[in-house]
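Feature request, filed as a ticket because there's no other form

It would be nice if the structure record came with a short human-readable summary line next to the tokens. Right now we just get the raw output. Example of a typical job, pasted below so the devs can see what we mean:
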Amino acid sequence: MALSISRRVLRAFVASDFSFGPVSRCNAAFNGHVYGDSLASLQFPVLGKISFDVCQRYSTTILTPNSNEGTFPSDLLSPKRVVTPDRKIGLYQDLVTPVTNFYNEDKGFMVLAGDVFDVPIRKDIIHRVVRWQLAKRQQGTHSTKTISEVSGTGRKPWRQKGTGRARHGTLRGPQFRGGATMHGPKPRSHAIKLNKKVRRLGLKIALSARAAEGKLMVFEDLEVPSHKTKNIVNFVNQMENAKKLLLVDGGPINEKLKLATQNVHYVDVLPSIGLNVYSILLHDTLVMSRDAVNRIIDRMHTPINR
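Raw output as currently delivered:
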């Protein structure tokens, strides 16, 4: 078996005031590979009271911090988990995500388009899109009656002069109880204009934010075994840090899935055509089927009709 001694071990020996004399005699052991029983044939000079049989003392096949054989110095092994640096967001790089289902089965992988799921995060765009959505869905059916619409007589209440009271010409004025409302609201649309490019960019940013947070899951499909609510409840309980769940399917929602989620207030279901920024922000976890992801990508790549 080939053995390669790392530079870290060599630095540890140097730090311990050990000198190997002619380094050329150890190059075969430290810089290359030693095969077979040639480890025992290597000879190292004796320094003080310490005799080095380095290759036999510090060679092992299992290097763990909890190793009880004493074959490798424990101070050279770190028990800490190695964490890779976080990926930079907004580089328009394609993302590879695992695909699973409600049974937590491995269904392979899927590539998410970088121009949809890895765009730079802009809070100002999200704010504009959410404001546009909330204003557009406002009904605007509020209405009040003007002086010509309120019911009442048109007779002058009393004569103009001689009574000592203020002069009035009608009892339907705004100063009387049951009278008109001046400058009150009338039915109108509260919708504001927002360019289609900005709306589309807002959806891309919302999807990219969920993907960057690790809160985007891709399922092969959203098929459930039955319409029982306990199937969805058990699935949500198995998830970590998932308080509200949004399920997005490609086509029409399956009837079993609709019945299983209608009594669960923290789980909502949408078709891919209805996916929007505000719904994504209301839920901390987004679960999309493979078909839904493909339809969203096609929708984002479709040219905007002017």
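Something like this underneath would help us a lot:
The two ends are 69 Å apart (CA to CA).
Confidence is low (pLDDT under 50) at residues 16-63.
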